[in-house]
Amino acid sequence: MVDEDRRSPAAVVFDALGSEYEKAFAASAAHRASLEWLLERLEPGSRVLDVGSGTGRPTAAVLAAAGHRVLGVDVSPVMVEIASRQMPEGEFRCADIREMPLGDAAFDAVCAYFALLQMSREEQSGLVRRLARALRPGGFLVLATVPLDVEDFDGVFMGQAVRVTSFAAQDITALVRGAGLTVLSEESVMFTPTHPDARPEPQLFLHCRLDATGPAG
């Protein structure tokens, strides 16, 4: 058993939530539409990195069912165990994406659905640049976040204490563009997770392509 004091805050939260997280977000039409946007643009058998892969559903499951090769990475060992059990054909790794080596131009697409919110702004900015470098030129990044101008905000998420940092919508869009990505489309929605302790939250989905010349910086 992993010592809770040595786990990252995100691992502690999502270890506790487990499959309840999947149930709470299963009704997200915006998430499904975002995956459809990506599926329409991927070449057959594309290599996709799923950052914060959770239980493997829906992101990794939908992409794998369409014939793509997905690597799911999550900091929560409980989530990785659930994903590996639900998708034995999948590839899931328990790792901190901030520390995990990523090869240059190694992926045709990267998905990062709500995976950045427990990182500092500096870490989020650095990670987006690293994810851009991990894309082949012309590859796609799909990123979803809660677009609030908050830093180290102590809140409660589905009954779990969380400390959240995020950017306002225009700032996360500027961050993505600064990494050499073109925002092809974006969608803003309000969504209430299906959970008794959940509250309505704004969500921003950005659908991006890496410029053919490669990432900035």
UniProtKB/TrEMBL annotation:
<dbReference type="GO" id="GO:0032259">
    <property type="term" value="P:methylation"/>
</dbReference>
<keyword id="KW-0489">Methyltransferase</keyword>
<dbReference type="InterPro" id="IPR029063">
    <property type="entry name" value="SAM-dependent_MTases_sf"/>
</dbReference>
<dbReference type="InterPro" id="IPR041698">
    <property type="entry name" value="Methyltransf_25"/>
</dbReference>
<protein>
    <submittedName>
        <fullName>Class I SAM-dependent methyltransferase</fullName>
        <ecNumber>2.1.1.222</ecNumber>
        <ecNumber>2.1.1.64</ecNumber>
    </submittedName>
</protein>
<dbReference type="Pfam" id="PF13649">
    <property type="entry name" value="Methyltransf_25"/>
</dbReference>
<keyword id="KW-0808">Transferase</keyword>
<dbReference type="GO" id="GO:0061542">
    <property type="term" value="F:3-demethylubiquinol 3-O-methyltransferase activity"/>
</dbReference>
<dbReference type="GO" id="GO:0102208">
    <property type="term" value="F:2-polyprenyl-6-hydroxyphenol methylase activity"/>
</dbReference>
<feature type="domain" description="Methyltransferase">
    <location>
        <begin position="48"/>
        <end position="139"/>
    </location>
</feature>
